[in-house]
C-alpha cells in the first residue's frame, strides 16, 4: 500500500492528511490552543483528592483541572529515582505495597503536592485531560520509560529471532536501567541508529528533570512534537516515500528534522508552490466535508448514518436506493459488505473513539453474518488505534470499542448549533404557533387593551402571515382583539414576546 502525507500550513492552523493509495485515511488538525496536548509533560499541583472515586484533580495550568486515577500514580515521586512498576510477567503493579494491600489514593497524594505528570488523553468536551505519573518519551524506533525497568517489543514484530536480537541489543547498550519499548519501525535497526535514538531520548529526559527542579507548578516541562513532526515520526513507515507540504518554512523544518533525527529515513519531501490550495489539488476537501455529515452514501445507492453522542457512537446501515439484482438476501449481504469498507474509512477519518455500535441490515444466512464479521475485523487491521470487536448478534448488531486519546473530527471542526443547541432538532413552526395561540388565550382573560402585539423571529412572523392567516383571523374574531405581528431579527426561532396596547 502506497502511503503519503499531505501537509497544509497556515498561520492559524496545520492540517496533515495521511493518504493510502491516494485516498484520505486519517486527518490531524492542530491549532494554537489546548485542544490536543496528548504527550505533553507538566509539573502539576494536586488540587483535590477524591477517596470515593480513587482519583484526584491536578492543576497543570489549563482552564480545566486534569484528573488522575489511583492506578496511574507511582508510589514514589522522587524525580530520577527508578521505581520499577512492571513485574517480570509484564503486569503493572501500580499501587500495592509489600503486603499486597492496595494503597488508596489518599495515602499516595495530598492537596498541594507537586508531581510530574504526562497527558495520556487530551481534554474532550467537558472532561479535563487525563494524566499519569508514568512518563514515556516516544522516538522513531523506541519509547523511553525512565521509571520502568522493562524491555518490550511491538507485537507487530513477529520474527522471534529479530525479537531476541533487539532485546539483546538494548540490554547491551543501556547504562541506566531505564525501560524501553521497541516500536514496529525498530525492526531491523542497526546498533548505530539505536545509540543515536537512545542518546536523544535520555538527553530529553535529563532536560525535563532539570526544568522540573527549576520551576514551580503549574508549568509545562515538555511539549510533544508538532502535528507535522509527529506524523513523520509515527506514520511514515518503510513503504511511505513522499511528503508534500505547502509552506516554505515548514518544508525547510521537515528536511532539517529528518536530517538530524532520522537521517536513514528515505522520504521524498516536496514543496508545493502552485496557486491552487494543496488540499484541493489532492481532492481532500470534499472527503473532509463528507466526514462531517451524518449520512454517507455508498456507491451502490445504500448509505450509512453516523450518530455521535458523548460516550457512544451508532452507525446504521441502510439499503437506500439499492434494490439488487437477484434476491433480497444477496442485496442485504452486498450492502453490508460495501458498508464495512466505508465504516472503516469513516471511523478512522473522523477519529471516532469509545463505544461504537454497528447496526448492519439483518441477514438470515449465518454464513453471510460470519463473512461480514470477518471482513469487519480485516478492515480495521490498518487502524493504529487499539480496537476490540465483539461477534455479531443474531439481529445484526456489532459492538466494538476504539481507543480515544483526542477529539473526534466533528468535535474539532464543528460547534454547537445556535438554533437547536446541540439537540439535533428544533420545535416545528406549527408547534411554536400553537404555543403562541395558547399564550394569547391565556392573556386574553385579563387583558385590558384592545390590541395584542406579538414580536417573533423573522421566520415565525413570515410563517404566521402566510400559513396561519386564517387561524389568526379566527382568533381575532373570537376574542374581539386585533393581533399585530412584528418580525424581530435578533429573536431565536422559538422566541416570542406578547404585549398589549390600546387603540
Automatic annotation (TrEMBL):
Assigned protein family: Belongs to the RNase E/G family. RNase G subfamily.
Entries under NCBIfam families matching the protein: RNaseEG
Superkingdom, taxonomy of origin: Bacteria
Essential cofactor(s): Mg(2+)
Disordered: region residues: 79-98
Keywords on record: Cytoplasm, Endonuclease, Hydrolase, Magnesium, Metal-binding, Nuclease, RNA-binding, rRNA processing, rRNA-binding, tRNA processing, tRNA-binding
Cellular localisation: Cytoplasm
Family matches, as Pfam families: RNase_E_G, RNase_E_G_Thio
Domain S1 motif: start-end pairs: 39-140
Protein name, UniProt field: Ribonuclease G
Amino acid at each position: 500500500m502506497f502511503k503519503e502525507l499531505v501537509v497544509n500550513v497556515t498561520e492559524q492552523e496545520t492540517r496533515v492528511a495521511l493518504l493510502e493509495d491516494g485516498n484520505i485515511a486519517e486527518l490531524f488538525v492542530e491549532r494554537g490552543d489546548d485542544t490536543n496536548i496528548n504527550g505533553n509533560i507538566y509539573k502539576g499541583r494536586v488540587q483535590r483528592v477524591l477517596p470515593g472515586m480513587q482519583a484526584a484533580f491536578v492543576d497543570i495550568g489549563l482552564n480545566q483541572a486534569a484528573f488522575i486515577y489511583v492506578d496511574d500514580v507511582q508510589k514514589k515521586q522522587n524525580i530520577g529515582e527508578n521505581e520499577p512498576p512492571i513485574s517480570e510477567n509484564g503486569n503493572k503493579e501500580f499501587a500495592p505495597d509489600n503486603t499486597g494491600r492496595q494503597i488508596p489514593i489518599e495515602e499516595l497524594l495530598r492537596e498541594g503536592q507537586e508531581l510530574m505528570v504526562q497527558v495520556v488523553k487530551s481534554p474532550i468536551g467537558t472532561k479535563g485531560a487525563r494524566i499519569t505519573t508514568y512518563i514515556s518519551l516516544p522516538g522513531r524506533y523506541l519509547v523511553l520509560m525512565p521509571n520502568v525497568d522493562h524491555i518490550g517489543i511491538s507485537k507487530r514484530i513477529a520474527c522471534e529471532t529479530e525479537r531476541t536480537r533487539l532485546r539483546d541489543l538494548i540490554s547491551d547498550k543501556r547504562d541506566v536501567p531505564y525501560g524501553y519499548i521497541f516500536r514496529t519501525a525498530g525492526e531491523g535497526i542497526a546498533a548505530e541508529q539505536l545509540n543515536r535514538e537512545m542518546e536523544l531520548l535520555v538527553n530529553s529526559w535529563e532536560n525535563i528533570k532539570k526544568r522540573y527542579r527549576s520551576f514551580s507548578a503549574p508549568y509545562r516541562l515538555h511539549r510533544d512534537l508538532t502535528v507535522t513532526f509527529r506524523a513523520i515520526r509515527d506514520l511514515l513507515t518503510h513503504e511511505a516515500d513522499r511528503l508534500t507540504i505547502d509552506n516554505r518554512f515548514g518544508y525547510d523544518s521537515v528536511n532539517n528534522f529528518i536530517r538530524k533525527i532520522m537521517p536513514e529515513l528515505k522520504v521524498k519531501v516536496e514543496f508545493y508552490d502552485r496557486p491552487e490550495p494543496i488540499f484541493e489539488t489532492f481532492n481532500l476537501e470534499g472527503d473532509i466535508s463528507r466526514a462531517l455529515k451524518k449520512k454517507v452514501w455508498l456507491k451502490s445507492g445504500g448509505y450509512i448514518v453516523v450518530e455521535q453522542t458523548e460516550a457512544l457512537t451508532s452507525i446504521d446501515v441502510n439499503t437506500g436506493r439499492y434494490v439488487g439484482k437477484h434476491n433480497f438476501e444477496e442485496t442485504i449481504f452486498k450492502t453490508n459488505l460495501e458498508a464495512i469498507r466505508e465504516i472503516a474509512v469513516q471511523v478512522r477519518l473522523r477519529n471516532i473513539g469509545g463505544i461504537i455500535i454497528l447496526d448492519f441490515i439483518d441477514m438470515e444466512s449465518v454464513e453471510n453474518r460470519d463473512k461480514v464479521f470477518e471482513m469487519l475485523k480485516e478492515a480495521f487491521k490498518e487502524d493504529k488505534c487499539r480496537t476490540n470487536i465483539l461477534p455479531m448478534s443474531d439481529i445484526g448488531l456489532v459492538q466494538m470499542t476504539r481507543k480515544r486519546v483526542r477529539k473526534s473530527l466533528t468535535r474539532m471542526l464543528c460547534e454547537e448549533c445556535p438554533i437547536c443547541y446541540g439537540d439535533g432538532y428544533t420545535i416545528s413552526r406549527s408547534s411554536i404557533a400553537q404555543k403562541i395561540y395558547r399564550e394569547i388565550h391565556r392573556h386574553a382573560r385579563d387583558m385590558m387593551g384592545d390590541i395584542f402585539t406579538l414580536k417573533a423571529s423573522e421566520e415565525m412572523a413570515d410563517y404566521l402571515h402566510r400559513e396561519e392567516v386564517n387561524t389568526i383571523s379566527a382568533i381575532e374574531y373570537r376574542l374581539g382583539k386585533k393581533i399585530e405581528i412584528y418580525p424581530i431579527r435578533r429573536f431565536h426561532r422559538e422566541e416570542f414576546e406578547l404585549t398589549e396596547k390600546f387603540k
